[in-house]
Amino acid sequence: MPKYLLQASYTADGLRGLRKDKASGRRDAVSQAVETLGGKLEAFYFAFGADDVVAITDMPDNASAAGIALAASGSGLVRTRTTPLLTLEEADQALQKSVSYRPPGH
Question: Which stretches within 1-106 are classed as H helix?
Answer without folding.
Answer: 12-36, 62-74, 88-95
